[in-house]
Amino acid sequence: MTASPGSVPASAPATPSFATTETHTGYVPGTPQNPVAVPIYQSSAYEFESFEAARNLFALKSSGNLYSRNGTPTQAVLEKRVNALEGGVGALAVGSGQAAVAVTLLTLVHTGQHIVASNKIYGGTTDLLTDTCKDFGIDVTLVDPLDLDAWEAAIRPETRAALVEGVGNPIATLADVRAIADIVHAHGVPLVVDNTVATPILFRPFEHGADFVVHSATKFMGGHGTSVAGVIVDGGTFDFTAEPEKWPTFTTPYARYADLVFTEEFALPAPGVPREDGKSPFLVLARSKGVHDLGPSLSPFNAFQILQGIETLSLRMDRHTRSALEVARFLEAHPAVAKVHHPGLESHPDHATAERLYPQGIGSVFSIDLACGEDEDPIEVSGRFIDSLTLFALVANIGDARSLVVHPATMTHSRLNAEQRAEAQITLTTIRLSIGLEDVRDLTADLGKALDRVRPAGQHAAGQNTAGQHIAGQATAGQAPAGHPAEAVPGGRGASAAVPA
Ligand SMILES: Cc1ncc(COP(=O)(O)O)c(C=O)c1O
């Protein structure tokens, strides 16, 4: 790591730094009560100034508060703030990260058309792509995000979107966003990047050619595991008018909206340059059709919770990232761990990519493969490890202040078939970790104890594949670093979990 995320430069930057943006952008106290914190506007609907004002709002001819399914003033602050962090032309907040992905794709892609997506992504997104998209008559090709020829080969005349996670969940696969963007752009296809794991603190996809960025704000943005939310950001770079016949919803009169042509009515001053009102053809359609019709709205309370989280995002990402790398180094030295999928490690095949694209680190979500002998049951081994952990909560989530653990093959990615799981590099002993904000010495002590119940330090499994990742002579495996009160970490989740003989 060469720099600290969110660090404050000596002189004031030309654009606000992350730390300032996180705490200020999008909100100016202005109500008679003048609250310094963003208020939770808990109102289902908003009173129109006049009949004419109401008609104009419904006709998309003016901006303003209408009905909370379409947006709230609390949500509007969140949208401005995330947009500023990502450097887009505007944003749309929705009820979950899943909704952010779904609304983005369904705004771009219709029945009979096609999506190309990474095969190393969050299992819920794979479910959406391989099951629900099929119901909608949308075909999907999943490709290895690192195989650029596969992206090229998968594109068809009817392809309308490409989707990749910047840092893939759960294997921390690092996509070369610029290279993928160049390929899909050559075919007139926009690139959507899910930036949930890295957050804009560590990676800004628009600087690498992405056209749309989606987030599960449930994770690091909220940061405390309290509220589900999602955000879509438009980079304003995709030109729907370059091949207008491919995008009739945007480029031809839309009868539903009194024959408005979205690319004319909401045109940007120039590619990537925001309008005063934060609108764009894509964002207006996503809000007034996708969210309006399907209804995945964000509650004002959840928007407030995510805003609270964002105020400390760069501080937290710094700690998360540093701790995760320290934990990864500890894990790669333990004989119970066959592989550590953390590209920040020098031994990882994608380490050079990590240094190039993620100079501040790759965040704190990564996986390990537990060592498993040929005569052992991988599910039992995984269970013995997970149930021996005390500090790590067994939770289907990432990006919490608390450290979390999950068994992707039977939990978050359990709907994938065996072939899809293999392509996603998820084995039956793959364990995903999300490193929290606790003292890292407590975390390594907890992990060390649980790993010792899988395989005590010094003992190797018969037929074990160590994948060449064990580095001899590093920290004594399973042992807390010097000076750490290891006894402060009690018992284990499964009190009956036996230490193997
Ligand atoms: C990378 C990624 N994208 C999207 C989602 C979906 O987000 P949510 O759970 O907020 O709907 C998740 C959830 O784990 C995720 O990890």
Textual characterization of the structure:
The chain contains 17 helices and twelve strands. The longest helix is centred in the middle third of the chain and has 20 residues, at 313-332. With 501 residues, it is α/β, with parallel strands linked by helices. The protein has helices spanning 18-24, 51-58, 73-86, 97-108, 123-135, 148-154, 177-185, 199-202, 248-251, 262-265, 281-294, 300-310, 313-332, 351-357, 378-388, 418-423, 440-454, and strands at residues 90-94, 114-118, 139-143, 159-165, 191-194, 212-216, 230-234, 337-341, 365-370, 393-394, 404-406, 430-434. Residues 1-10, 465-491 and 494-501 have low confidence and may be disordered. The site of pyridoxal-5'-phosphate (PLP) has 17 residues, from helix 4 and helix 5.
Which SSEs are present, and which pair or pack?
Elements: H1 18-24, H2 51-58, H3 73-86, E1 90-94, H4 97-108, E2 114-118, H5 123-135, E3 139-143, H6 148-154, E4 159-165, H7 177-185, E5 191-194, H8 199-202, E6 212-216, E7 230-234, H9 248-251, H10 262-265, H11 281-294, H12 300-310, H13 313-332, E8 337-341, H14 351-357, E9 365-370, H15 378-388, E10 393-394, E11 404-406, H16 418-423, E12 430-434, H17 440-454
Parallel strand pairs: 2-3, 2-4, 4-5, 5-6, 10-11
Antiparallel strand pairs: 1-7, 6-7, 8-9, 9-12, 11-12
Helix pairs in contact: 1-3, 3-12, 4-11, 13-17, 15-17
The structure holds pyridoxal-5'-phosphate.
